[in-house]
Amino acid sequence: MLLHGEEPMQLTEAELQSPLRLAYIGDTIWDLLVRSRLFFRKLNLHHMHEEAVQAVNAQAQAAAFRLVEPFLSEKEASIARRGRNAHARHPAPKHQSPEDYQKATALETLFGYLYLTGQEDRIRELCSRIENNETGGEACPE
């Protein structure tokens, strides 16, 4: 069940979604995972914020994507590729490279797809790969 109480989307329905729509929800999922992990580390608010800023940006998300990319299924790689190739109507944020921004969008698209289709175990598996390779950011509650 999704956070809002709805049943997960069918894979075919999720595949028909715009990659930027998937990235929209995936960005929030990534942020929630990072912040949840930090919360359970019992840091004070200032330190939680500082670490979240380090993990929820294009550079950190691109690094996370590079870690999981070799382990994606063909379908997941296709979804991520659609996200990477999607053209947002705005440039990459200041101090972020366009390449990192594209890879971050790929990660967000993938996480949005996995979340909307109810694949929480797969999200945890990918998060574990990210955490085990230390991207400089925290993600995914244990």
Description:
By secondary structure, the chain is mainly alpha-helical. The protein is 65% helix and 0% strand. Helix 2 crosses helix 5, helix 2 (19-40) crosses helix 6 (98-116) and helix 5 crosses helix 6 (98-116). The model has no long low-confidence stretch (mean pLDDT 87).
The coarse overall form would be globular
> Spans of 5+ residues with little confidence (pLDDT < 50)?
none
- CATH fold label: Ribonuclease iii, N-terminal Endonuclease Domain, Chain A
CATH class (first level) name:
Mainly Alpha
- The fourth-level CATH homologous superfamily is Ribonuclease III domain
SS-derived structural category = mainly alpha
Q: Output mean pLDDT.
A: 87
- What Rg, in angstroms, do the CA atoms define? 14 Å
Q: How far apart lie the N and C ends?
A: 19 Å
Strand count, sense and barrel status of the largest sheet are: none
Considering DSSP H and I runs of 4 or more, what fraction of the residues is helical? 55-70%
